[in-house]
What does this fold into?
Amino acid sequence: MRIQPRQQILDVWRALVDACWDAKSWRWDGVMPANSISDSEQLLCLLYPATEIETFALDEPDRMEEDVVSVLGGKLGDPKQIGTFIVSLLEEYIEHNTREDGQPNFSAGSYLRSGEKREPTEEQRKIEVVDSYSMSLTVCMAGLRFLRSFERTARGRLKDRIEELSGQLSTRLTAAMTGLVRSFVVNTVRPKSPEGQAMLGMLNQTGMSEDALLQGVRSSLSRVRARLRSDVTLGQEETVKELEDENLLFECGWSWGIARDASPVKFVTENIGGQTGIADPRPYLYFTIVALDGINDLVSPRTGELGLLDETQHRLAQALRTRWELTQRYWSTIARFGSGSWPLEDIPWRTSDGEQSDYFSLIVSAVLIQDLVARTASDDDLTRAVAIFDELAGRGRIIRRAAGDDPAVQLHTPGVRLTLRGSEVVDSGPVLQWEVSDFSAVLLKRMLQAARLSNNVAARDKLMELSKSAMEHLDRRMLRAGAAGLWDDPAGVFGVNGDPTVTEPSWYMTERVVECLVAADRTYREPPPNWTELQTVARVTLNTAEHRFHQEMLGISIDDKSPRRKTLNRVEEHIDEARQQIREDAATTLVHTLDALRELDGLATGRRDATRNV
It folds into this structure.
């Protein structure tokens, strides 16, 4: 099926309002009880497109698009009332996710699963995770952008509410940024340890000796190591010292929460982001890409242009930008290490703790694409990435049919379970787990990002075809009853026999589909690549048209004012326009050239007909 982000986002908005608003109160729960993360995800289904895509903007009532008003206005009121309603939603969000002591609450609540027979304790439900920090960061940035613009039309009490709400969102933003800084980890391991051997085994795709392999790894990561030592000390003073020993291997990224050895961020004077660290100081691939996505919203040029950050937040943002850059560079280098096959091409990816999954390969691919978006991507990198996405789409049963009892189905339902090491120390509870079931949405988003970068015709075409297949897969998982038009019902694809039809929305999955649609909008808004192949055809065709034009001009007088001369004047205009566009837009050049040839062919046909009549 085609991906049509404008229509599909409007459909999600219509379904969202129908499912959650009864004209009196907003419903925050879904298939699972509400928590700080699901609240953020639900709010982003509305706010993310509204602040990332100009045609969906809700902050200027006089400029709101007619179809947006049509979809939201039926239940929420006129354009001004829609903006006021968003203010109310943000106020509820802050109220629900603020502790009794007035500090921001990032507890994961119902999203936490037990890895044992006993249930998580109440204290464990209060554990904060990177997902909440990252989602909250994006909500706060989107909310502040919205309020900054909407405030210009506000008067009286509404203006006072916006000012107070902006301060609350800013406080939550500072806490989320602090949590992300303290959740970043650098894990060092000895080459001979089981972890070191697992890392080297993943990297060694050509049978190199261990000494040569270690030398190659040291050389490839030397700049990342040096910058980690010099630039990443905030919150990790003790851990980073271990990087002085260049004989140690290392990996960097985000743990599932604040690391147990993370020190406080001293310049954050308020008592926020101060939860005691308990997470195992080892990078988790899933939480790493979640953190990178959140920070990506923070470091966009628009954030600086709008002046949304205060001095403390600027310092935190710089610290997060450094970690964002180094983490992407680290995993991008590791994924493509060596001169032969990439480690990333050896599916499934194996982590340093010995676990392996196609999902981990997808996440490393996602980090690679994120890095290629931030830097200049080569066609070779993107072409090889296409083959990886194609393989993952097949292994994940996006483009292949799932057989009975197919283990690949577990990537989608119930999903991959990640053990949150360290969570058991809270209240002597069970070891907790985190469930990730967004394989298809992650795949779609990264393929759309890669398509935006690709200048290779075959690669881009393949990516778009795979993207359509992934969108069709997700469309079949859309709820058909209850909260119809939202997600997620995996039985729509995999036909899980005996399971009742799901009617409650998963904000986890719905928000990720919305991210995909925003990514599709960005891809479509980019000018089409000026393909080398198309330029060649356009130049040949243009030269042919010019030659035929000059031939026609040989047989016409300067003073000629006949219809033939007027036709040749139009031909000349087409050729001049085509010549101006050849470097930037070969497709438009070709259109003008074909119009010129069509006019010239008409003149030639007229001459032939006149000759026959004689």
Remarks:
- The CA atoms of residues 198 and 520 lie 37 Å apart.
- The chain has 23 helices and seven strands.
- The longest helix spans residues 156-183.
- The first strand starts at residue 112 and ends at 114.
